[in-house]
Protein 1
Amino acid sequence: MGTYIPNTEAQRKAMLSAVGAECVEDLYAAVPREMLVEALDLPAGCSELEVRQKVTAMAAKNRVYATVLRGAGAYRHFIPAVVKSVVSREELVTAYTPYQAEVSQGILQSIFEYQTMICALTGMDVSNASVYDGSTAAAEALAMCRDRKRNKAYVSACADPQTIEVMRTYCFGSGMELETIPEKDGRTDLSAVTLGADAACVYIQQPNYYGNIEDARAIGEAAHAAGAKFIMGCNPIALAVLETPAACGADVAVGEAQPLGLDIAFGGPYLGFMAATKAMFRKLPGRIVGQTHDVDGQVGYVLTLTAREQHIRREKASSNICSNQALCAFTAGVYMTAMGAQGMRQAANLSLSKAHYFAGELEKAGLKRVHSGEFFHEFVTECKNPDKVLRRLDEAGILGGLPLGEDRILWCVTELVSREELDRAAAIIKEVC
Amino acid sequence: MKLIFEKGAPGQHLTLLPACDVPEVTLSNARTEPLDLPHVSETELTRHYTALAKRVHGVNDGFYPLGSCTMKYNPKINEDMANLPGFTQIHPLQGEETVQGCLEVLHESEKLLCEVTGMNAMTFQPAAGAHGEFTGLLLIKAYHTHRQDTGRTKIIVPDSAHGTNPASAVMAGYTVVNVPSSPDGCVDVEALRAAVGPDTAGLMLTNPNTVGIFDRNILEITRIVHDAGGLCYYDGANLNAVMGVVRPGDMGFDVIHLNLHKTFSTPHGGGGPGAGAVGCKEFLAQFLPGPMVAKDEKGYHFTVPAHSIGRVKNFCGNFAVVVRALTYVLTLGREGIPEAAKNAVLNANYMMKKLGEKYAMAYAGPCMHEFVMTLVDLKEATGVSAMDIAKGLLDHGIHPPTMYFPLIVHEALMIEPTETESQETMDEVCQVFLDLWDLAHENPQALHDAPTKTPVRRLDEVGAARNPVLRYNAG
Amino acid sequence: MNFPAELKYSKDHEWVKTIDETTVLVGITDFAQSELGDLVFINLPQPGDEVTAEESFCDVESVKAVSDVMSPCTGVVAEVNGELEDEPQMLNEDPYGAWIAKISDVTAFGELMTAQEYEAFIAK
């Protein structure tokens, strides 16, 4: 069996005698005898080599695609080599939440820098240290906007369906009401609902699930006119070239920050970013790092505004979150540093331009775009036989777009896909359609 | 140390992406604000983050007895396995037939961890312990709702509980009833009996509890709650003491969460990502978040439970963390798992004994995997607080224990060595603790002034909170 | 410690200053601020809130704790001292100047003490 216990049998005996016990079982005297496990029904432990073989065999059963044209909430982007090298530093990987600030300055400063970069990207005033993922960030954002008189969230039907489902689950818990705002031509149709006096917030995704650019300013104005808060769920890469949530009047900006240097990794770990206006920042859940000084006047960083949180407020806390995705936030920070403004804009422009090129090629191949208007790096086309199209692409080592129902496909193109790959995919599709 | 924004110069950058090979497109509502991100060379970048890493104490840097957090060694094979391209490069929305390996990881992990805990089904969607608590409580809520038993609005929580317990209960729409602990740190059974009733939805408990004691009345406790019609939730924060020795399922718990980042050796990453797997008994499985993974003759596939509470997170949770935990469970196997628990308990008792020479224990031993000291007398005699001792440890390269928790013990220091520490390390650390005790009597000011050898000294938290500076502002 | 004679005091350590028959100013006492330590934030009530004697009507935060502030009377919040949001340290530095709320339409008071009685109360 494999073990990470350093003490030898002799040392254990010496320790037992020091504590005055005959055997380790004596220390479990409080456990009712009838409850003790005789033997777990588990495989025997094994050596590192055997484990490596077992787990590698599982990984080998997965299909890795050379070309990925699928997004829908998880995006494969270029990750600079320096990101992984820096992020694998053992000190960072093996540390816990920075409770002891004096020996956690590296983590705290990296979060402070991350918070600054998220503010730069979104234009918002304050960012927290991150939460679990984009969907939980969105669900927490709804809760931030709730008050005694306003208990209803209006959520765009053009948001990621998984995110909407997570919001619903959270609302099942809290008792907040959730109404979806219908879709029209792939965009949020706010005119289809009346925001009542109980409207706490309006949530839209930008670009939305279908890749389309929403008229965020107008929706924000309508939300505010009804006395509701305006929340935008944003793709952070798109923000390099798209007007910021702050410019659109958002009170809270959230999103899935996986595109900032994290592997798609079958869905996680990712991280959710959350940023707010100055007026709302005390309602942000989770960790926040602040700058201060030590007793010698040296600049340092601490977890701050902690009296908002569960360990102090307990049942009066507005959220139970007690951790952040620190290592993921660190990764996102290193990624944004490596890319810089220029690299971020380049990644966004390449994704945007290649997606438009591919949409054009698909149209020539017979797959017309379903919606009108502007889009970022995702778009929906018609497709009479999505299974057949996707199967043919699969045979060529290409993960095609995500089928939406029987006759549509949601495509995604990032900077990782070359023009040749796009041409090849379009040629295959032309053959099939 | 400078911030990354204060380094480099405008125009410095890495060369990462090629020129555009298709016609360029611009958006009509394009960004007009500047994008103020760092501008540094690759050399500068690497040096900056390496310098940051050096200002962090991780498990690899030294002893880390943070009670209730199980800071055990993080095996490197786990990292290797999680970083296999066959996992990292898999899109979460690929077809089932192309992700059989990922589904096998989830299915195997579920099977093995259900066996360890005495549960029948398990989801890996929750990303952390608190997220698991929330999920577990929603299962309880869905169960009562499904039975149209709508009067159950209260969750009972012991006063020694971690703050996430009551906070999670409120997020799940419940009101919290706090029950006091007995003088021995366990649940006051009579107080519990008085607290339950037709409005009881459930009880949240850790066992061993937050003071490191196994509650010998556990069967009676879970029976009282069940007899009142409530369900029992097990907070798995302290499972490391008992895994393979006794199972929460056999204690009478209906739903549990595990912290894969504590008990199952996945790294904490400075505060995340972790994973808060939620297991439950058969009768609750129909309410679990979907999708779950099932297996038939054709292989693995996704399935959504009949009365699912819905997703609590996108996709399948922190998948790569599950890969690490599975690697660990496969490594230890049926003998290694109880062996780890027993050595965790032995190590804690050994330290308790040695420190008991001078320090006062909040509760008599033997303890489970952790124990709580109370420094009230020391503070009265010398003015040196639990905080001062903690800061003194920092100057010796030792991460302090958990301070001021649980709230029911004053001047608390909670020590959890874990099974991966050697007798040699513990002897050295105990000697430092005992020396600090002497120092407290000889020169208390030295401890009020500690630490002096860390990258920064004690920080002004009041100033940070009164005048929050939460981001860098140039100029 | 300072306990102005013109004020009344509650056993929950709030002071009350009478403005007219049904209007009062409320704050926390010098004793309260010293027990609570450095305060870093106050969650003020909202004007229009109905408050009940001896029930919580706002809370104050230190770095390590949050504490309820109990209303010494039943009435309606007419005005709050917004300056405290930006400068919570005023609660420590000038507890009797740093009024928290003006409460009007007061219909009942909780148990209140004179300065002398309050001093004796906290000495216990």
Protein 2
Amino acid sequence: MPWNRRNLIAIEELSRAEIDQVHATAAVFKKTLQRSMKKIPALRGKTIVNLFFEPSTRTRMAFEMAAKRLSADVISFDANASSTTKGETLRDTAQNIQALNADMIVLRHSAAGSPLYLSRLLTIPVINAGDGAHEHPTQALLDTFTMQEHLGSLKGRKVVILGDVLFSRVARSNIWALTKLEADVTLVGPSTLVPHWFADLGVKVSYDLKSALADAEVVMLLRIQHERQTSSHFPSLGEYTSMFGLNKTRASWLNPKAIIMHPGPINRGVEIDSELADSSRSVILEQVHNGLAVRMAALYLCSGGTPEAVATSA
Amino acid sequence: MSQLWITNARIIDPASQRDAPGDLFVADGKFVAGLSAEQKHSAQKIDADGLIACPGLVDIHVHLREPGQTHKETIQTGSWAAAAGGFTTVVCMPNTSPVADTVGTIEYIRNAIEHGSVVHVYPTGCITVGQKGEQLAPAGSLKRAGVVAITDDGHCVQNNEIMRRAVEYAKMFALPIMDHCQDEALTQGAAMNEGVMSTRLGLRGWPHAAEDLIVARDVILSTYSGAHIHLQHISSKNSVDIIRRAKSRGVRITAEATPHHLALTDAALVGYDPNFKMNPPVRTEADRQALIEGLRDGTLDCIATDHAPHTDYEKDKEFDYAPFGVIGLETALPVVLDVLHRQSGFALPDLISFLTCKPARLLGLAAGTLADGAVADVTLFDPGEKWRYDAKAGFSKSSNSPWHGQTLTGRVKKTVVAGRVVYNGDKIAG
């Protein structure tokens, strides 16, 4: 089945086959990352604009590097230093970028739904690099890619997402990706940050860390997002760590082969014990590495590249 | 001496429990029992065959944006939208710029009404100075200047002591208080109803508890003071329950529902269209059904549109940044016909009462009846006509409607204000 999307907005709308296709494409690109000559000419002559209205380290660098590996020209745009501070709207900014003949926009924005809004406004492809608490599709694609490298098929495998789920776009995209891949997903964290509504999305919701972690094969930690919370969601970081932080004792409840994941940036000593973050069970840096190949796949497929042509292109 | 003779209509006047075919006669702007042969000869005659003639519709909750926000709407363009929607009497909210918290601003508004409006417009004043919720606005002077109620619509008074004193003070002047029920601490940054949909969309949730708490507060303050408090745009099932129990004890509470809360749920927000962003937000199917049942058993008294115009350039942006509010005057009747009459089995006279005599009585307005001697405001509509609503071609200055582009059933054919046809089914009479 050919990939025929021009935009990558949300995992919720992707089919299982489309997720598999991104993974397969990423696997091909991942091999090219080991070469001494890393560039491939797939997007030569294209210009990709990274339009980032929120701070980002990993995602922005990964998208920029992915575009360069595909031989595209890249402009990374820091919205804080632009005319948005002079009152220009997202609509006008994006239309100007399109008028400059850009071929694709990668958008990070604090308002949920803004990539969908842009995709309706523009004729060039839009890739969502995180919109508010809505979705972060490439993160979920790289997370599930990493899980499959370690576990093979995710069908029936127990995955726990632990932490600030309410404000997390990473959690939402992973919930959609993991349920489509038929994993057994449990959300756990303080009740104020893991509202019961999530159960309607096809996952389990738990407030009991021990039973949630028991025999889990993957635990995905989420950062406590101080910047998005009103002060009332939980008492303190210290209380959070004492109730829900992942430490060695709690990690021992996991399946012995379990992997520990985190989308970053990590707060050492808050949601995860510093030693655990660096332990052999942690695949946090593998996630970052796979993020490059997955974003190459996303850029490539949304530019009209066919899965069949990847091999020759790569 | 001008006369109007409407013939062959199905006449529905809920105030007098009249529902029969017949004629309506108007002389000098008022309904009369009949016309002489000579008067009939010279009268303007409207053949209303196939149409329903009812009292001109009454909307006690509209935003006409004048003074200060005339890029969105003016009293004149808002009155055109009202006439096109069959409304002959509207009550405009005071959250203008400046807000209507002084006699001078009320006089300005009344002057604009006198010179610009094609329908009857009654102003409201603020509960507090600047709608800041801190100091009482001069309710007595505002009443003398012509306001029919006071409200801080859009900015619910948060301080219970201020609200207590406001309702006690207004009671002295028999001035109703209309309250926009919203506990602001519970809605910081919120954009839509809190629930499964807000969870899916990643938008910050607005719990119905924010409305329920203030509805309960107002019930308590009305009980305590004996003052009449009218609760605006009720959206939640729990609030309907609280009002029902209060009314059963005889508390002087009244309440309204909007066409959009009766017709829509938060499932409509799936595409992040800001034309579905309103305050309070549309909620779940259970809430929607509770509003319909609230109208059925009298818990809710009337329907009001909360017509809230915003320009395209204000609305067309990221959902979080778009302002709250939708226009509703031109679509209210067909939407309500659909939801209440065709889907929920309400008889037409009952439905029409929510849009005529009931809201008029609630604020003591001389409107909402076809009785002899009353001001001759009439709406003629075809309940079955299908038409495509193009908000951009409408009479409101703004087009922020959730029904833009949709086919609606039921259409206003003529609107008569004080015996004069102000809307003929196509355009406003100048």
